[in-house]
Give the backbone structure.
Amino acid sequence: MKLVKFFTLQIISFLFPSWLFKVKPNKIVVDSFRGNSYSGNPARIVDALMKYNDNLEIVWLAKKIDDEFPRDIRVVRYNSLRSFMELATAKIWIDDFRKKYFPRKKSSQIYFQVWHGVIPLKKIEKDTVSNLDSIYVYEAKKDGKSIDYMLSGNDFTSNIYKNSFWQDGLVLDYGTPVMDRIITHIPKNDSSDKKMVLYCPTFRNEFVLEDYKLDVNQIVSIFEEKFGGEWQVGIRLHPNIAEHEKDVIDYNGGRIVGYTSDKSFEDVLLKSDAIITDFSSVMFEAMYGNIPVYIYSNRFNNYIKNERSVYFKLEELPFSISKNEEDLLKNIKEFDNKLYSERIQNFLYKIGNHESGKSSEKIAKFILEKMVDK
């Protein structure tokens, strides 16, 4: 059934008569992560676009068309025939994930691929092609041929986009839109607020509850002893295993607050005072906000050997590494904010950082310039 659907939609994509539809010079069609609602890099770019130009026709392709969107955005169902017509008539395409089904792009149209990441830790795209589904590889290559511009916040990531994404577009070093608020945010200073350590485990090939076990009581106790105040543990699971959030919370005695369904990760991150993760690139987003990050996994070697290889050696990262719970508690106790900040600056220098907190503004102005180009 999966293959039948795939080939049927690919045929529709190929046969769709996009040449019949005239491109509108002020029209932009946006998609995030294959049909998500208003979120991610695309949402932050659209916010900036509407700030600088109120005469744009902006269409968002979403699976849930009744979700809340800004008033001036027209919402169309993702992967519908109507969505093909919208794409065929748009001057600008914006997406943060591989486009799966889309009409052939005209030479007058411009596709901005603003990938959903800051700094990749796990190898992606061509760098891990032997682990990718053949259908995904086909989609990635097809999508890559249409890309005109990508967006990056550092030299390291730019090189991956240039060499591993099956694309020949220009990589703009303007930064990452979702990082703007995180970089420019004002740290919380109200000691009466309850503080939160957010647990963000990455997606694994097999869901096993035991992999998500935390000693919540001990962790809370150590954080309160080290940093003062009242603490709680939150959790945000990878979208691919979002339906297991309640299972993980129950497995940990119900003492965890769920944030998996929150649409904006930026909002959740800015509520957090510390992060515990294993292989999630969330660590880098927290790093830019100078939020303490603790890497914790008792299956490091198994994950790297059997699931995903990584770009960095663990010792290259500016975070403490814990391979068991005893190490985790020790690393929380011994956290030194001055040393952590120094490690972050050294790491940012190494990767060639370009983040400035003004990415959305820069890319929005660039898009508007391209819209008036002949």
Q: What stands out?
A: The two ends are 44 Å apart (CA to CA).
